[in-house]
Write a structure and sequence with these properties.
Length: 355
């Protein structure tokens, strides 16, 4: 990597860093505002809400990095173009492909940062934020391994497995106790869906009930469980698929497929995390045709507006597809890669036409 490559990489990374900070500050503000309804519940205070926001910052940074990479690359290279530095670089015989190569180096560095933050830092801190909030808002809650939650509700002790949707949980184990704290029954549901009134529909439910001298078993079926615990409560203690690490998702996919269960939420989340990381490389490439063409002399306001439109469009498309995967029963792998594929197609097509 020569001096020119280092200069371009430093310019792109500096602009991406600045826009990451700005977007992260905005995201943290909205997240803190969203905590206002919970302040005052139990012992959850404004200080706890602020800590919750701080612990969620790495996850916010990972979510916003593709947008920041696109806007930052556009602004950084646009500044060089407006100052005629790009013109001087092109006059020395440097091709758009060479500039794209330097941008890809910056993209590779950003991808490495995304992997480090998204796989090793953000999940642990986000889980700690959920636990801190749950401990502040509720008293009778304990956390087990792999993101599960143990909760007592009257004479029931409930263990909820990982969350796979807003009101869907991957499994639930129920221990029923007698008034003198003896075990009456153990039941397990393969899937648990929360209703709007606090009741739960348990599917694939089997039960072993202990009576004097024998054990009565209940074959698999459905059970409606009346409980004061809602999905929002248990959602504080468990992870949704899009918050899980790639290794965890891969293990869950293998488990669900081996047991003939619906693994689509985990398949989509697995490939979506990979695709979103790869999208960073194409996000830094997309601005190059613009700064070498129509936006060469444009002001910072115009570049910011275009960058925001492209970045927000990519983000909204990602979220729209995430919802449609489960609602319309579409192929989760294809849909997970669709936003990145569209971004790559547009970036490469425009670069091919740049002279």
């Amino acid at each position: 990597m020569n001096a020119l490559d280092r200069y371009l990489v430093r310019t792109i990374l500096g602009a991406v860093g600045m826009w990451s900070f700005l977007l992260l500050a905005l995201g943290a503000l909205f997240l803190f505002i969203g905590q206002q309804d919970d302040i005052g519940v139990g012992s959850y205070t404004a200080k706890d809400a602020l800590l919750f926001v701080v612990l969620n910052l790495p996850e916010q940074a990972w979510q916003l990095l593709p947008i920041a990479a696109l806007i930052g690359s556009l602004m950084g290279l646009g500044t060089l173009a407006r100052g005629s530095e790009i013109t001087v670089i092109r006059a020395t015989g440097i091709s758009p492909a060479r500039i794209a190569g330097a941008a890809l180096i910056a993209g590779a560095i950003l991808m490495a940062i995304a992997i480090g933050v998204g796989e090793f830092l953000a999940p642990q801190l986000q889980q700690a934020a959920k636990q801190q909030k749950a401990f502040s808002k509720f008293a009778d809650i304990t956390f087990g391994g792999n993101g599960g939650a143990w909760v007592r509700d009257g004479n029931l002790i409930i263990n909820a497995a990982r969350q796979s949707g807003e009101n869907q949980f991957g499994g639930m184990t129920i221990f029923e106790l007698s008034p003198n704290h003896r075990l009456r029954a153990i039941g397990h549901a393969a899937r648990a869906s929360a209703g709007s009134t606090g009741d739960w529909m348990l599917r694939g439910y089997t039960e072993s009930r202990f009576t004097s001298g024998r054990v009565l078993t209940r074959p698999g079926g459905e059970r409606r469980l009346e409980s004061s615990l809602g999905a929002q409560f248990l959602g504080l203690a468990v992870d949704e698929p899009h918050d899980m690490q790639i290794g965890t998702l891969w293990s869950l996919i293998r488990y669900y497929q081996a047991n003939a269960l619906d693994a689509r939420p985990y398949v989509f989340a697995f490939w979506s995390r990979i695709a979103r990381t790869v999208a960073i490389a194409f996000a830094v490439l997309l601005p190059i045709p613009f700064v070498l063409g129509s936006l060469r002399s444009a002001g910072a306001g115009a570049r910011t507006a275009i960058g925001l439109m492209l970045g927000i469009g990519f983000f909204l498309l990602q979220r729209l597809i995430e919802s449609g995967t489960l609602v319309f029963d579409l192929n989760p792998i294809v849909l997970a890669w669709l936003p990145t594929a569209l971004l790559a197609s547009v970036a490469l097509a425009l670069l091919a036409r740049t002279r």
